[in-house]
Amino acid sequence: MMAWMNKESVERTIKEGHTVFWSRSRKEYWVKGQTSGHFQKVVSLSFDCDGDTLLVKVNQTGAACHEYYKSCFFRTVNPDGSWYINSEKLEK
After folding, report:
1. Are 52 and 67 within one domain?
2. Which of 1, 19, 85, 90 is the most buried (most CB within 10 A)?
């Protein structure tokens, strides 16, 4: 999945060991799994050469996606521009 973090959410993610994100629309922090039970336990945290993008590897409990897929990236594009769903939907 993809979500926004700011300095405090990164610090909380490191300290708490699970992902904490910043909701730009709601202007509040949210813990992935807080309402769904689909938590993300942090395995590693890396950042890119510019220091403006984080890659957080996690052990995912249940679905990461609100459409109940393990990943939000469940659609793959073919060379001709068509696409297909590349994984099975998980149970709610």
Report:
1. no
2. 19
